[in-house]
Specification:
Layout lengths: L11 H11 L10 H7 L31 H13 L15 H15 L4 H14 L26 H28 L9
Helix pairs in contact: 3-4, 4-5
């Protein structure tokens, strides 16, 4: 009985009664209080351990936990929907701030200072970040082309190219007329014969 784990289940009376029934305790060795307790049981059942049956219903019960949405979560979702994930996040730097988080911060800042509706405020936030040097590329859009090119041949303007082409055509026309004129002056007459 000392090593039994079942001693915590049921009352002391029930345990002694079961020991007498199983023959571990002889009826002549039963405790003095056993007959009194059997004759006058308590009105309230006192258990040492947990009750055998809990008040909870058995089986799987689904606890409904409400979803928690913050305003910035909606802005993040719309950001990722329009601009995608972008570049990878560098989590090795503790001071790293993602483009999305910068967008959310700028959005909340602009929201506190202006009274624009959400779509207009979203566009204004994108423009404000562009002014700060953060280029946002919409999903499916071609990569942005830099306004300033590093190649000097691409810096030429269309009007400069047309003017240069017209000058070249004029030079070519003058050289053709000069060649035609020299051919006509140095050609001997064909009608003379000996």
């Amino acid at each position: 009985m000392a090593g039994s784990r079942l001693e915590k289940l049921g009352t002391v009376f029930e345990r002694v009664r079961n020991l007498i029934r199983s023959g571990v305790i002889k009826p002549t060795e039963k405790p003095i209080w056993f007959d009194v307790y059997q004759a006058f049981p308590p009105k309230k059942n006192l258990l040492n351990g947990k009750p055998l049956y809990s008040a909870r219903p058995r089986g799987k019960t689904k606890e409904t936990v409400p979803d928690i949405f913050y305003r910035e979560d909606e802005v993040r979702a719309k950001f990722y929907e329009q601009y995608g994930t972008g570049r990878t996040l560098d989590l090795t730097k503790s001071s790293f701030v993602s483009t999305c988080q910068r967008f959310v911060d700028k959005y909340t800042e602009l929201k506190s200072h202006s009274e624009l509706d959400d779509p207009a405020l979203f566009e204004e936030t994108g423009k404000a970040l562009l002014a700060e040097g953060i280029v946002l590329r919409r999903r499916g859009a071609p990569p942005p082309v830099s306004a300033v090119s590093k190649d000097p041949t691409l810096r030429l303007k269309l009007t400069d190219m047309l003017a240069e082409q017209q000058q070249q055509q004029a030079v070519d026309a003058d050289s053709t007329e000069t060649v035609d004129h020299t051919i006509q002056t140095h050609t001997p007459p064909t009608g003379l014969s000996n």
